[in-house]
Amino acid sequence: MTQEILAQRLWTAAQKDSDLRTRLRTTYRGRVDVCDALWWRANPLSPTPAGRPDPAAELIDLKAAVYRLHTDPEPLVEFVDPITLRTVYATEAEHQLRTRMREQTQEDAALDAVLTAAESGTEAGFEAGSAADRPAQQAARRRDGGARAGVNAGPDAEGEDTAGAAGAAGAAGRTDGPGVRAEFGLVAGGPWRRRRFAALL
């Protein structure tokens, strides 16, 4: 699953789940609203349904100002680079572009952290779906874990019965392979790579 698809599904789920919105906003470290950031990741350069423009669109105008031909050379202005702390010389347009690109990189990194947490399951309480639906989701995960335990039951190469271990792994919400864990609403749907997005559809 791409980050764009995951962002769209989290945004869609958050519109109906105030608890999910709260967890998203707690996890997110960016300067804009996390729901807006999710929308722009899934729909680059498109205004949100509320009409807020994507801040990344500003970069297009700033780049055009830097790279267009000028009849007279722009004067160079002295700046202190906030990362290297060195004095640099650039035009005002170049300085604005550098500053805005640095801010956009920070915003992207903040949202990447939220999406990575959703995929890796590092935020145990970060689960999509309404509060009323969660008991049903948890029961479904327990049934899913029991089904996997039945498939995997039987003696292994050493003659050991692995059914108990498989059942415990399923009940803990662990997937059969790499992917998004059940705590985030993405639940293993079968052996190895087959998964479904149970809570957000």
From TrEMBL:
Residues 122-184 are annotated as: Disordered. Residues 128-139, 149-179 have a biased composition (Low complexity). This is Uncharacterized protein. It comes from Cryobacterium tagatosivorans.
